[in-house]
């Protein structure tokens, strides 16, 4: 994807020469003759680099520089000046300009500075997202499976990727909606741009607006500096709005406007900012039911679901369970520098029999624990920690439940996996109690996560983390 360069120069001949030199290198060039035109372009087109003369017929390059930095402190500005006014260029650099060019301008030097400015801009954007991106990519498995439904989803994904249409990914918690969103981004013309994700359910309502749209300095108590929001950070890339069904009604109108007009204001700001963002949303809720219950705006629902894709749950992809399990075993053995492990036939039987309410995420967590606990050459049922978990499937699952019932006819302690060290056994029991308590709280609160968190006396964010950790569906 090309990055626009704003060229601010009042002399037509010089502006034309510089434009041709930049366009020859594949850059999109926006032109302005004075400060007002330049400021308008900066606000509307959000260029990646500004190249401006310091002497202009209306206003000057310092005004262009200040307007650029006011809108986006990371916007790279290169100033041009006559040889006798080098001191002005030095002053501009002290005010935030990246570099300067002395006239007459050398086109090769110009191209070098512009390429360097674009590279710096990319590095700055990547730095902001580095920790989050790295953690997500390291922890995210590839989309793996041979199921017919999964192949259909992959075909839909490829069709949508070539367009800029808004995509709505629907599916149960843990089915890998973010992985599909990342695949969509990687296949799209925006692959060179940033992929920015935000979980609308994991951030308190009072903070969500500033996370999405950013805020100005002094917008509220504690706002000591301007902060860009996720929409700005995703400029020329993809914004992934996870758990969009949990978006508060008060924010839905602002999201709708940002989607339709590509414009928004920072919290506490008055200037309208323009962004070029492709939005992918995901939900594990029935948004149509939310619209009927007046909990979700109908116009926003239709705007989001231009291209809906439904991801099948793992229980409908039974043949993929063994494929995924082997993949996770191989990956975790490699990550933990452990010798290669196999999965015993009995363990595979348990894995296939279990219904996986937490889907792929739950399977991944289960295999990770099993690899940690296994000290031999193969993973066995005792390493899976599925003895507490009833399966909803028939046939093989009933046979397994029958065998477990026999073991459970005596003391309930006989059902607890006490293999390994005392610490390992304690961790397994504690994790199971924690999982059951979270499930109970959610059930008693009828799915209201805020009420469930209050009953457990934990923060809302902690509840969401526990729910994901244990693969507990909404």
Short descriptors:
five-stranded parallel sheet, Rossmann fold, elongated, 474 residues
Distance, first to last CA: 38 Å
Helix content: 40-55%
Q: Please name the fourth-level CATH homologous superfamily of the largest domain.
A: P-loop containing nucleotide triphosphate hydrolases
Biggest sheet strand line-up: 2-1-3-4-5
Low-confidence stretches: 390-410
Discrete helix count: 20
CATH structural architecture of the largest domain: 3-Layer(aba) Sandwich
Tell me the CATH topology of the largest domain: Rossmann fold
Number of strands: 14
> Which class do the helix and strand fractions yield?
alpha/beta
Strand-residue proportion: 5-15%
Average predicted confidence as pLDDT: 83
Task: Give an overview in words.
It is elongated, with a radius of gyration of 28 Å. The protein is 50% helix and 12% strand. The two termini are 38 Å apart. Helix 3 (61-71) links the parallel strand 3 and strand 4 (76-82). Helix 2 (35-45) runs parallel beside helix 3 (61-71) and helix 19 packs across helix 20. It has 20 helices and 14 strands. The longest helix has 33 residues, at 107-139. It folds into 3 domains: 5-123, Rossmann fold, CATH 3.40.50.2300; 140-312, Rossmann fold; 329-469, no CATH class. It is α/β, with parallel strands linked by helices and 474 residues long. The strands form 4 sheets. The protein has a 5-stranded parallel beta sheet, sandwiched between helices. The chain has a 5-stranded parallel beta sheet with strand order 7-8-11-6-12. Strands 9-10 form a two-stranded antiparallel ribbon. It has helices at 12-23, 35-45, 61-71, 86-94, 107-139, 148-161, 177-187, 205-213, 230-233, 249-261, 287-292, 298-304, 320-335, 345-353, 359-373, 381-384, 396-407, 422-444, 449-456, 460-469, and strands at residues 5-8, 29-32, 49-53, 76-82, 99-103, 167-170, 195-199, 237-242, 263-264, 273-274, 277-283, 307-310, 342-343, 378-379.
């Amino acid at each position: 994807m090309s990055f626009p360069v704003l060229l601010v120069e009042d002399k037509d001949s010089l502006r034309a020469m510089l434009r041709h030199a930049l366009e020859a290198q594949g850059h999109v060039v926006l032109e302005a003759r004075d400060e007002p035109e330049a400021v308008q372009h900066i606000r509307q087109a959000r260029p990646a680099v500004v190249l401006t003369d310091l002497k202009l017929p209306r206003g000057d390059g310092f005004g262009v520089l200040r307007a650029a930095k006011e809108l986006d402190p990371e916007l790279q500005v290169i100033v041009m000046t006559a040889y006798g006014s080098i001191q002005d260029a030095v002053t501009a650099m002290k005010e935030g300009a990246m570099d300067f060019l002395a006239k007459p301008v050398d086109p090769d030097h110009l191209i070098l500075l512009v390429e360097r400015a674009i590279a710096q801009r990319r590095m700055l954007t990547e730095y902001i997202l580095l920790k989050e991106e790295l953690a997500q990519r390291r922890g995210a498995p590839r989309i793996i499976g041979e199921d017919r439904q999964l192949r259909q989803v992959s075909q839909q994904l490829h069709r949508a990727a070539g367009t800029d249409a808004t995509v709505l990914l629907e599916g149960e918690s843990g089915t890998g909606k973010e992985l599909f969103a990342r695949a969509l981004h990687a296949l799209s013309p925006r692959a060179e741009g940033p992929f920015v994700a935000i979980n609308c359910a994991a951030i308190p309502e009072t903070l969500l607006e500033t996370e999405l749209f950013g805020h100005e300095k002094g917008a509220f108590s504690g706002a000591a500096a301007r902060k860009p929001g996720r929409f700005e950070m995703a400029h020329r890339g993809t914004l992934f709005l996870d758990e969009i069904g949990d978006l508060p009604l008060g924010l839905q109108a602002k999201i709708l406007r940002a989607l339709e007009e590509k414009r928004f204001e920072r919290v506490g700001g008055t200037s309208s900012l323009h962004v070029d963002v492709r939005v992918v949303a995901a939900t594990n809720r029935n948004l149509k039911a939310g619209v009927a219950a007046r909990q979700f705006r109908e116009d926003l629902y239709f705007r989001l679901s231009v291209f809906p894709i439904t991801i099948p749950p793992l229980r409908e992809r039974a043949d993929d369970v063994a494929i995924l399990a082997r993949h996770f075993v191989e990956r975790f053995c490699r990550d933990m520098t452990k010798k290669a492990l196999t999965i015993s036939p009995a363990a595979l039987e348990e894995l296939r029999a279990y219904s996986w309410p937490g889907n792929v995420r739950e399977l991944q967590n289960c295999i990770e624990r099993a690899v940690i606990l296994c000290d031999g050459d193969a993973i066995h049922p005792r390493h899976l920690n599925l003895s507490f978990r009833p399966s909803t499937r028939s046939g093989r699952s009933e046979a397994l439940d029958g065998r477990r019932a026999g073991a459970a006819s005596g003391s309930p302690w006989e059902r607890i996996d006490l293999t390994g060290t005392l610490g390992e056994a304690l961790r397994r029991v504690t994790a199971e109690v924690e999982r059951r308590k979270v499930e109970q709280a959610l059930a008693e609160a009828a799915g209201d996560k805020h009420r469930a968190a209050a009953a457990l006396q934990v923060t809302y964010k902690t509840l969401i983390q526990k729910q994901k950790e244990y693969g507990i569906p909404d």
